[in-house]
């Protein structure tokens, strides 16, 4: 189970104000308020709020300066207050607070989901299952495909984004974020933009894009590695080309080009299937062509480099004291180099 722990030093909130706000805004909150923190993420801060036997999850942006459009709590609330009825793996959001005076930032309160999170290796609870790595992987791909097949209009999310020109805007937007976050020049990053812009694939569908699908961003049913029970982190959700989402998922997967690198966003130990298995299963579950998947993989590594650079710059600027961020600058360079390698291999 993904367990909450004591709140990290420096990440405490105004608990008194929060309690007053929650008791006024929600019903059936009885007993003393207790708080803890989930320590797994690198960006948004996630807390467990308990009132008696009722457990809630509070998510807010990290402290410090926030990149434009990042950590969008209003967007997360919009998605999770509607999507749960059409995609069971989406936790239901109950409350959005846009008053920064309560805890210093906007925040969302949602239902608590429990389950097993896979980080680095197969948890003990799953080790007795045969072919468990393949089953976990297949379940992740099936759930990703299910998300990408949700009827956007029926879910009331047709105004979540502008799918026309989505990929072009992604390239332009992330390039701007790169220039805002870079601490030194990097020709690999500039070359990737040039190569990707010259050959943009035609989208095969319009879908809900989660933007951060990976094994440790979801939970599995404890007695069933074939069942994903929930996805986390919906603050970047939009509408667009679903292969952008799938490309991101591939970029988090073990890769011979990154096996020697420490502190990767996800490093899976054990006989997990190769990327070709993910591509095969996702194509099977969605019916989409995988002909241009390397374009999407290159974009994903390039985008990951920018996200890592944003986190690293927060450390450089003194906006966070989290030592994990210090090593992310070098990792961003590695991601940029891989993105260029994949992009150039297509030409």
Task: Explain the overall architecture.
The structure is a single chain. It is built from 9 helices and 9 strands. The protein is of the alpha+beta class and 347 residues long. A hairpin with a 2-residue loop joins strand 7 and strand 8. The radius of gyration is 20 Å and the shape is globular.
Main traits of this protein?
two-stranded antiparallel ribbon, 347 residues, 9 helices, alpha+beta, 9 strands, globular
Compact summary:
The chain has helices at 15-25, 73-80, 132-148, 166-181, 187-197, 242-251, 275-286, 293-316, 328-345; strands at 33-38, 45-51, 54-60, 93-97, 107-111, 207-209, 218-221, 224-231, 238-240. The protein is an alpha+beta fold and 347 residues long. The protein has a five-stranded antiparallel β-sheet, with helices on both faces. It has a two-stranded antiparallel ribbon with strand order 6-9. Strands 7-8 form a two-stranded antiparallel sheet.
Strand order of the largest sheet: 1-2-3-5-4
Overall geometry: globular
The computed structural class is: alpha+beta
Poorly predicted segments: none
Order of helices and strands: HEEEHEEHHHEEEEHHHH
Helix content: 25-40%
Count of helical segments?
9
Tell me the span between the first and last alpha carbons.
45 Å
Q: What fraction of residues sit in β-strands? A: 5-15%
